[in-house]
Amino acid sequence: MKKATLLAFIFTFNLCIGQENLDNVNSKATETVINYLNGKNWVERSNYVTKHSNTLELMEERYQEMNFEPDLKDSTSSLYNLKKALQANSGTWMKVKGVNNIYRNKVTYFYGQNKTESSTTEYIVRNDNNKFLIDWEASLGLSEMTMASFDSRKKKEYVMMRVFMSIEENYLEKDALPDYFCVRINQEGDKFSVEALISRKSELGLQLLDKLLDGKWHKKIIYVRYIDLLSRKQNDYSKTKENLRLIGFLNSIEFDNWIIENDQAGKPIKVNLEDSNLKNDIKNFESYLKNKSLIDNAPLKLKTLNAAKFDYYQQQVTLYGYIDIDNYYNYTYYGTEATHYSFKLSDNAYDNAHIYFKKVNSKNLFDLVSREGKVPVKIVAINKDKQEGNIGYILLEGISFEILK
Fold first, then answer.
1. What is the pLDDT along the chain (405 residues), one digit of tens a residue?
2. Burial annotation 136-160 (CB, 10 A radius, 16+ → b, else e)
3. What 3-state class would DSSP assign to 190?
4. Which residues of 333-344 are buried (b: 16+ CB within 10 A; e: fewer)?
5. Claim to verify: residue 122 and residue 258 sit in the same structural domain
6. 352-358 and 395-403 as β-strands: parallel, antiparallel, unpaired?
7. Are residue 387 and residue 247 in the same domain, yes or no?
8. Domain that holds residue 278
9. Contact 254, 267 (CB under 8 A)
């Protein structure tokens, strides 16, 4: 047999074997799902699903005998349409990227007047030595507990959850925890998403951050817990406990799925959060919340001060805010670059005031702000400038300052 003929024969033989295996997957996976859908109660259905530690308990909880929950993807009202769609599309089982012997099929059926509405459900099927069983928990996106239950219990232990995850770019407190980035997570069927934090110090966290920057929602298996931190009530500053969701485990970064597989690439890895300066970060975060509350509830607001400059002429005032270096020298302070440092005080409402400190009294403040950027302060100052015409932000002469810790 010539070499070219032999190669063609080998290629054709391998193609036939591959097609035969694919046909076997399509036939047996579809048969498994249809048998599952024919189950009259959860016990019958359980014969066609993989058994994890608490699968049967979960099935019993979700399926109460004949009364399948109407919000489930495979509710009784959809059985006929689902089976019909499966039989019509039995050749659509595809191998799940990144895992072995696991296949998925997204089944869409149309209903309603003129069949203008559609419903799609996805089934995950495992092939174990030619025995096909549904990964029921991965198919429905089930977790150890619901997010509502997790939030109500304020769980301090890690809880496994299958979630949709996306990056949260506008998290208000992100600057207070620089070693963490914020994500939004929600479970299958949830109407609202919630926020959680992930350490950016770990290689795994950085890989995830890079993946989430596409702005899309990704399927992820996470392990999440609460940490306590001290905050303050806005009215009386009394200490009170608040909580922050913190993700410490992640499954495969490369692949988006809800499948737990022992030999899966990037299988769940624990991130030791305490080793990434968590306690110090929490302490800084508590300081941030305390200072934010002090600034928000300052006796004299910068907005009020700017709106009534003449009322505070030659008066000493106490202010709270974030101080930064500025380069504005005008009115009374025109030409004082040699004797005064120019600062700008701002608050959380984005109102501002110009503060001028004599250099002999504020060199350490200037150096601190130059090195670290904005810092929270308590300022005692006096308004020496009538600022005729009431133009621009008020100009104040600094008397003393206190860095807020």
1. 555 555 554 444 444 444 558 788 888 999 999 898 888 788 888 999 998 778 888 888 777 644 554 444 555 556 777 777 777 766 688 999 888 889 998 888 777 777 777 778 889 999 988 899 999 999 988 888 888 888 888 888 888 889 999 998 765 454 567 778 889 999 987 888 998 888 887 778 888 899 999 999 999 988 888 887 766 665 555 666 677 888 876 767 888 888 887 554 445 555 555 545 667 777 777 788 888 889 998 999 999 998 888 888 889 999 999 999 999 888 888 889 999 999 999 998 889 999 999 999 999 999 999 998 899 999 999 988 766 655 678 889 999 999 998
2. bbbbbbbbbbebeebeeeebeebbb
3. coil
4. beeeeeebbbbb
5. no
6. parallel
7. no
8. 147-295
9. no
Q: Which of 276, 295, 314 is where one domain is finished?
A: 295
State which amino acid sits at residue 257: N
Gap between the Cα atoms of 349 and 172, Å rounded: 13
DSSP collapsed to 3 states, 200-267? CCCHHHHHHHHHHCCCCCEEEEEEEEEEEEEEECCCCCCEEEEEEEEEEEECCCCCCCCCCCCCCCCC
- Answer for the pair 111, 117: CB distance below 8 angstroms, yes or no: yes
Assign 100 to helix, strand or coil: coil
CATH number at residue 334: 2.40.50.140
List Cβ neighbours of 304 (8 Å cut-off, separation of 6 or more).
none
- Looking at the structure, do residues 128 and 164 belong to the same domain, yes or no? no
Contact between 345 and 357 under an 8 Å Cβ cutoff? The reply is no
Q: How many helices (H) and strands (E) does the chain have?
A: 10, 17
Q: Contact at 8 Å (CB) between 108 and 92?
A: no
Task: Indicate whether 258 and 376 sit together in one domain.
Answer: no
Q: Are residues 93 and 182 in the same domain?
A: no
Verify that 65 and 184 share a domain, yes or no.
no
**Domain end residue (candidates: 295, 312, 336):** 295
State the Cα–Cα distance between residues 325 and 355, nearest whole angstrom: 10
What global pTM score does this model have? 0.66
Q: Are residues 163 and 290 in the same domain?
A: yes
Query: Could you tell me if 238 and 284 lie in one domain?
Result: yes
